[in-house]
Structures are given as structure tokens and as C-alpha cells.
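Input (structure):
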């Protein structure tokens, strides 16, 4: 069976869905691996690196996809590449289906069996395939590094003969994988760190990393028990806004990481909060791809407000650390494939009743199969 690795074409995408390490292991399964020329350039992987690992270098997407039974990509292929994928091929990628629902019927109409890795269920058996966690971990780290570069003072307290430079105060909104890594990184750089999250379990995680917890603790927050945060009521958001309006103005750096699965990112940092911050302050919005947690974020760009606050709203934060992000993402996809690989048949077997397969499969056999994207049934 032929496995094709596509070159990413969407804006800001620097990652690649395979590395020489994973190519060797894919070949070990009995696969022939074709990598589109230049696919690894953004992640500092040359075509010769892939060739040395045993891959065939295809001149373009059409050549890579010719006869392919499996296709690996980071984001959803563009329509012209979708048209080149053979019918009944398995496409494994992160199409961001909730934000781009039109891709789902397009894949079904093309007869492609599509696995959306961002929909992987949060269960123990799936941890090593969890692309959201692996990429969010790197995004949280990179957010703090970018913030420290944009902050005009420095993160640690520095005592010199000329005087003392106080430590930066960093406030992290959202204590999921990205938020916890941001807390840890900011603490390692010497900042005074506080954080908030609507999930009560996050309080102890925040404190375990040496940060102070800031949050609304009531019955509604106590009901947040899942791996992903649910959208909160208007009443809760008002209480949260009142608390955060005082907190934001006292901090130098705000790291925004709050996301709600399948929904637009909640606006938490209002324009009024931005206006209350001191000149030189920095806001990093990791939720910019989903609309942003900060009302003043300009998606895909870095701006400085009239009162001197820098807001970093770049898209695709994992893509800003492409070597590590590609390495982890490629391993996630490899683990997914090997977990369902039939050695005798030399092909993947994807049982429809498996919890992981039910979670990730968008389309199968020319039909949409994921319940979140099925057309409503007529009464």
C-alpha cells in the first residue's frame, strides 16, 4: 500500500505530517511512502533526508497521490488536492472540521475516508495519538517565549549595583495543556505567575506549578468536570469579567488559551481591560485561530494599541516551532495508524464500533458518518 505525505499549502503552515524517523517505521509496516517535494522545508527537513529514510520524493501532489491508499497531512488539503486523492483512500489530518464544516461533505462526495485527529476522544488509550495535546504543549511554551521577546523589561527579578528590576507579572487564562505549559515556562523564566480556569480541578494543577489561582468558584464552575471546558452562562461570564477586570490591569503579560470545543473562543479580555493595562504590556492570544479570547486581537497579526499594549494574535502557534511540532505530530499519526494496522492484510482495519474510530472518522464509504456533522433528520 502507498502512503502519500503532502506538502502543506495553507497560510502560516510550516509543519509536515511525517519525519524521517516515522517514514522508516511506516516502511517497516510494509508501506511504500511517497513524500511531495519540499514538504519538510518549513520544518528543516530536506528531500534528501526523506530519501535517506527510504521515501520516494514525488514532484508534486498529483504524483505523490497517484495510487495512494493512505494520505497524511497536517491541515485539510485544498480542493484541488482533494480532487486528486483516490476514492476510498484514508486521509488522516486535522481539518478543523467545526470551523470549516464545508470540508466534511466535500470529502464524502470525493469518496475519501477522512479521520479528523482533532476529534480524538480524551481517553487513556488515545493519549499517544493526541495531536491537540502535543501541539498545545508546544504552543504554550512558544507563547511565553514570544511574550518575553515583546516585553520591554524582562521576566526575572534582576538585582544589580544600579538597582533592582522587578519581575514580570504573568496572568494565564485557561489551564489546559497550553496554559499549564505557559505557567511552567513563565515560572522558569522568573516571572510571578497567576492563572484562571473555569474547571475546579485546574486550581490544584495551577498551584502545583507555583502559580496563584484566580477564579470564580460557584456551583456552575463546580459542574465543569470534563476534559474540555463547556460554554458558561451569561451570569457566570459577568462574575468572571468583574474579577478579571481587576486582575488584568495589575499584570504585565496576559497569555490567553481558553477554547471551547466546536465553538468560537470566548471573549474574556475586553477592550476596556486592554485599555486599563500599562504601556509596554503584552497580550498573547493562542485562541486567535478560533476568533480570539481578546476583543482587540487582530487575527493573524501583531498590533500595538494606542495605549502601548502589544497584542500577538498570530495564527497557528505550533507552526511557530515547526521542527518539534512536526516531530510530535508525525508520531501521533504513526501511532494512530499502527494501532489499527493489520499485519496480515498489510492495511489498516478501522472497526466502526471502536471508541477512537467513532470519535475521529468524519466520512466513510462516500458518506458523512460523524454524528456532529450529519444533516438534521426531518420530523
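Output (sequence):
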Amino acid at each position: 500500500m502507498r502512503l502519500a505525505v503532502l506538502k502543506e499549502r495553507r497560510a502560516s503552515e510550516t509543519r509536515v505530517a511525517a519525519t524521517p524517523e516515522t517514514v522508516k517505521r511506516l516502511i517497516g509496516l510494509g508501506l511504500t511512502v511517497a513524500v511531495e517535494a519540499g514538504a519538510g522545508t518549513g520544518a528543516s527537513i530536506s528531500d534528501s533526508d526523506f530519501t535517506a529514510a527510504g521515501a520516494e520524493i514525488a514532484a508534486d501532489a498529483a504524483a505523490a497521490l497517484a495510487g495512494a491508499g493512505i494520505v497524511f497531512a497536517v491541515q485539510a488539503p485544498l480542493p484541488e488536492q482533494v480532487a486528486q486523492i483516490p476514492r476510498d483512500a484514508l486521509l488522516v489530518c486535522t481539518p478543523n472540521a467545526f470551523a470549516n464544516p464545508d470540508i466534511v461533505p466535500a470529502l464524502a462526495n470525493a469518496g475519501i475516508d477522512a479521520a479528523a485527529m482533532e476529534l480524538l476522544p480524551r481517553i487513556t488509550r488515545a493519549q499517544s495519538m493526541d495531536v491537540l495535546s502535543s501541539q498545545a504543549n508546544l504552543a504554550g511554551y512558544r507563547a511565553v517565549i514570544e511574550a518575553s521577546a515583546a516585553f520591554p523589561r524582562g521576566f526575572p527579578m534582576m538585582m544589580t549595583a544600579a538597582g533592582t528590576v522587578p519581575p514580570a507579572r504573568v496572568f494565564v487564562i485557561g489551564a489546559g495543556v497550553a496554559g499549564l505549559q505557559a505557567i511552567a515556562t513563565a515560572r522558569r523564566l522568573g516571572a510571578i505567575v497567576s492563572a484562571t480556569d473555569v474547571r475546579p480541578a485546574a486550581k490544584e494543577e495551577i498551584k502545583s506549578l507555583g502559580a496563584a489561582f484566580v477564579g470564580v468558584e460557584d456551583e456552575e464552575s463546580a459542574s465543569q468536570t470534563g476534559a474540555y471546558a463547556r460554554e458558561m452562562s451569561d451570569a457566570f461570564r459577568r462574575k468572571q469579567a468583574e474579577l478579571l477586570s481587576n486582575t488584568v490591569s495589575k499584570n504585565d503579560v496576559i497569555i490567553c488559551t481558553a477554547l471551547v470545543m466546536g465553538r468560537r473562543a470566548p471573549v474574556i479580555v475586553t477592550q476596556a481591560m486592554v485599555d486599563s493595562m500599562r504601556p509596554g504590556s503584552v497580550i498573547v492570544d493562542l485562541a486567535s485561530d478560533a476568533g480570539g479570547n481578546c476583543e482587540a486581537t487582530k487575527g493573524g497579526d501583531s498590533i500595538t494599541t494606542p495605549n502601548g499594549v502589544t497584542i500577538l494574535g498570530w495564527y497557528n502557534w505550533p507552526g511557530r516551532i515547526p521542527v518539534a511540532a512536526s516531530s510530535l505530530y508525525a508520531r501521533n499519526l504513526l501511532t494512530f495508524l499502527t494501532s489499527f494496522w493489520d499485519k496480515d492484510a498489510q492495511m489498516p482495519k478501522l472497526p466502526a464500533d471502536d471508541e477512537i474510530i467513532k470519535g475521529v472518522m468524519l466520512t466513510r464509504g462516500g458518506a458523512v458518518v460523524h454524528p456532529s456533522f450529519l444533516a438534521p433528520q426531518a420530523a
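Notes: Residues 259 and 265 are 5 Å apart (CA to CA). The mean pLDDT is 93.
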